């Protein structure tokens, strides 16, 4: 009995060590969050820190934020270009077009759903400051000007300048013409009265003043990377060098991200603790709870209603049975929080459980794991508006549209790695000029939210493969026939003459040029002249 108990204890310890080894980032992140909350509460209750001491206390967290900002630019450029360039494939053009349309459509729907929910629930609006004027509100501009700024930033004048500055316009009121001076005569007095009355009825006129402001023009960089990736992906062999370059750059950036992830638990500990020390209103915990509720509600609606409805409309089969077939991949994504690492399980479940053609899974799922991030798009849209609400920043319609567009585009280039969301959210914040200060709050719950949005990303890829497989049955059948013909032609001797019988074909052997080995010189000349 004692030996059996000892064996069970050893197996349990081995299983625990294996679990910790495979999920060290999860364990360390959760531990850092809990320790940060505990340390922050203790220091807040029993310590009396000055503002300078609080600044020094949060310095390790500041280093983490600087690391994250450092890798934003190379991360978005390398992952976006390499991911979009991989769309160039030998598959049928119609199949590729259907895949791209599905990816973009579901991602846009997810971003719009997230914005609708966060604007409705308003998790970042504090109850104590709800009726107070928003002193941090940005200068109001018209919707037309905001939309035009959006288009201007999509096409920057200088690509290098777009790495550190974005273009914004504002309205400047034109001064009215000066009134006549002097009133020595009655005519001058009448003119003054008429001019004053006319000025009161004249509509105010404005001029547009443009200026560059500090902050990365991520929207312009993303659009350029999208176009550049599509172009080099369609150049074939000539563009392969650039594709390989950006693939290697992406891999190198991922290694840097891994190094940052190793430091992340330490930075998160001091970020959380420092935030708790600085917070004057405990209402932040209620706001974080509502934030999680908003994100998880959006993910649930997208998973249980939007994606199944699209699948049923195009495939006319039970979408929930299809999702059940992907359960193993979804559980794997929930545990390891990486759509790229889950890819082998996703392909196996799609092919074996849901009978999706191998050519579709091998084409769509690897690309989907890179550029199809429905959960990430929804999360980034909700997080950006939530941070704006925390800082009492009023968003106009132009900024909301910018958030939805940027969230969609950023999710296309989002890396399929654990906890990449807080890195991507910095890009969205840069696009609308919001500060990064409150991003640290998201780390407290991101480790949990990240797992659910990764699960949605994997399921969205699988639903897309099922829809494209149904819509591409004719193309797949044609490809199958072509493959069969090519395979038969590979074993058929290449003949320049009339068909031969079996005996003649056994005597004559043809090479790639179509010449018979036992031909004489004159016969060879005759064959060449016929060619």
Describe the model:
The chain is mainly α. It has two domains: 383 residues, Proton glutamate symport protein; 49 residues, no CATH class. The protein contains 21 helices and two strands. Helix 5 crosses helix 16, helix 10 runs antiparallel to helix 15 and helix 14 packs antiparallel against helix 18. The longest helix is centred in the middle third of the chain and has 39 residues.
Number of strands: 2
Q: What is the H/E order? A: HHHHHHEHEHHHHHHHHHHHHHH
Strand order of the largest sheet: 1-2
Q: Describe the oligomeric state of these chains in a short phrase.
A: single chain
Cα radius of gyration in angstroms: 31 Å
- The helix fraction, in percent, is over 70%
CATH class call of the largest domain: Mainly Alpha
| Number of helical elements | 21
**Class computed from helices, strands and strand pairing:** mainly alpha
Query: How many structural domains can be distinguished in the coordinates?
Result: 2
Q: Average pLDDT value?
A: 75
Tell me the span between the first and last alpha carbons: 87 Å
Query: What is the third-level CATH name, the topology of the largest domain?
Result: Proton glutamate symport protein
Strand content: under 5%
Largest β-sheet summary: 2 strands, antiparallel
CATH architecture of the largest domain: Orthogonal Bundle
Note poorly predicted spans: 129-141, 494-500, 505-531
Shape: globular
């Amino acid at each position: 009995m004692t030996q059996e108990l000892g064996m069970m204890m050893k197996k349990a310890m081995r299983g625990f060590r294996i679990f910790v080894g495979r999920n060290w980032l999860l364990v360390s992140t959760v531990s850092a969050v809990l320790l940060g909350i505990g340390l922050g509460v203790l220091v807040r209750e029993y310590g009396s820190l000055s503002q300078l001491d609080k600044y020094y206390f949060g310095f390790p967290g500041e280093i983490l934020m600087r690391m994250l900002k450092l890798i934003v630019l190379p991360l978005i450029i390398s992952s976006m270009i390499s991911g979009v360039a991989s769309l160039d494939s030998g598959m049928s053009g119609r199949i590729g077009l259907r895949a791209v349309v599905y990816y973009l459509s579901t991602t846009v729907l997810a971003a719009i759903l997230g914005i609708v929910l966060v604007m409705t629930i308003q998790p970042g609006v504090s109850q104590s400051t709800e009726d107070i004027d928003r002193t941090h509100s940005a200068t109001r501009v018209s919707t037309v000007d905001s939309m035009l700024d959006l288009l201007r930033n999509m096409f920057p004048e200088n690509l290098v300048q777009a790495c550190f500055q974005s273009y914004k316009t504002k309205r400047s009121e034109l001064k009215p013409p000066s009134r006549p001076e002097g009133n020595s005569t009655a005519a001058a007095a009448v003119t003054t009265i008429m001019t004053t009355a006319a000025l009161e009825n004249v509509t105010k006129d404005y001029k547009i003043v443009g200026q560059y402001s500090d902050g990365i023009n991520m929207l312009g960089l993303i659009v350029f990377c999208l176009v550049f990736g599509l172009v080099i992906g369609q150049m074939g062999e000539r563009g392969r060098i650039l594709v390989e370059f950006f693939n290697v750059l992406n891999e190198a950036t991922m290694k840097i991200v891994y190094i940052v992830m190793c430091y992340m638990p330490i930075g998160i500990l001091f970020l959380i603790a420092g935030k708790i020390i600085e917070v004057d209103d405990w209402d932040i915990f209620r706001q974080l709870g509502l934030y999680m509720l908003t994100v998880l509600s959006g993910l649930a609606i997208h998973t249980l209603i939007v994606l199944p409805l699209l699948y049923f409309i195009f495939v006319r089969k039970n979408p929930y049975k299809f999702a059940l077939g992907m359960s193993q991949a979804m559980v794997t994504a929930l545990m390891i929080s990486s759509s790229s690492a889950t890819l082998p399980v996703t392909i196996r479940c799609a092919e074996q459980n849901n009978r999706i053609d191998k050519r579709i899974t091998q084409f769509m799922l690897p690309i989907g794991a890179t550029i199809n991030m429905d959960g990430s798009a929804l999360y980034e849209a909700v997080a950006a508006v939530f941070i704006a609400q925390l800082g009492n920043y009023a968003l106009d319609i132009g900024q909301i549209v910018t958030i939805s567009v940027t969230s969609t585009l950023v999710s296309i280039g989002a890396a399929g790695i654990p906890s990449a969301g807080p890195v991507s959210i910095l890009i969205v914040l840069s696009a609308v000029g919001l500060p990064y200060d409150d991003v640290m709050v998201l780390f407290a719950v991101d480790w949990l939210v990240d797992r659910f949005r990764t699960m949605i990303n994997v399921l969205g890829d699988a639903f897309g493969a099922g829809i494209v497989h149904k819509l591409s049955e004719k193309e797949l059948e044609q490809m199958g026939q072509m493959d069969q013909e090519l395979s038969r032609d590979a074993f058929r001797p290449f003949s320049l003459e009339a068909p031969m019988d079996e005996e003649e074909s056994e005597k004559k052997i043809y090479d790639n040029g179509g010449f018979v080995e036992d031909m004489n010189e004159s016969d060879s000349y005759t064959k060449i002249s016929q060619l």
